[in-house]
Write a structure and sequence with these properties.
191 residues, alpha+beta, three-stranded antiparallel β-sheet, 5 helices
């Protein structure tokens, strides 16, 4: 039986809230930062903080591009046959973008460390922002209520806020892409 993988650390700490000018209820701050971090990681498709990754690939012209940059370091490179390691590959080279292996290697398993160390300020601030927003999203079933009125009191929740209770808002997604260095795509129509 394998033990469950521990959750990665939050992308921001309570001290970061103060540093970036956010205030959260002290008894909920850690939980909100953990929830915000999970949403950011899900949107990014990566852990962001340093982690070890095992990747199998067939080299193209002796080169392998490793997913989820930045790569912090290569741990091992093994040649594979029928999905099983046959021998360590020792004469590999890493140029910062691609791993180069001998042309005779057909399939490789690469174990490497990737992530941001330290986490960029843009992502730390985004985690604080998302946590602050989550602190104001109505709890559980109340999140589906669009409008509520009692006597002369009325409150209306923006549809976007209700939908974003579990996801990042468009501006947050844009901030994440910018912090990770992902260029924005533009649609161009040619004539």
């Amino acid at each position: 039986m394998t033990s469950p993988t521990p959750a990665p650390p939050p992308l921001a700490a309570a001290a970061d809230l103060t540093r970036f000018g956010y205030t959260l209820p002290a008894d909920r701050a850690d939980g909100l930062l953990a929830r915000a971090s999970a949403r950011i990681r899900r949107a990014a498709g990566q852990s962001i903080t340093p982690s070890q990754v095992v990747w199998e690939a067939v080299p193209e012209h002796g080169r392998v591009v490793l997913p989820a940059p930045p790569v912090l370091g290569i741990v091992t490179v093994e040649a594979l046959a029928d999905g099983a390691p046959t021998a360590p590959v020792t004469d590999w080279q890493w140029d910062g973008d691609r791993l180069t292996v001998p042309w005779t290697v057909g399939r490789v398993r690469v174990t490497y460390r990737r992530g941001y160390d330290p986490v960029p300020d843009g992502i730390v601030e985004l985690a604080c922002e998302v946590a602050a927003r989550l602190a104001h999203v109505p709890e559980e079933g109340e999140g589906m209520v669009r409008q509520r009125s009692i006597d002369d009191y009325s409150v209306t929740y923006a549809t976007e806020q209700i939908v974003a209770g579990g996801d990042l808002m468009p501006g947050e997604l844009s901030a994440l892409a910018q912090a990770l260095g992902v260029p924005e795509a533009f649609m161009v129509r040619s004539r």
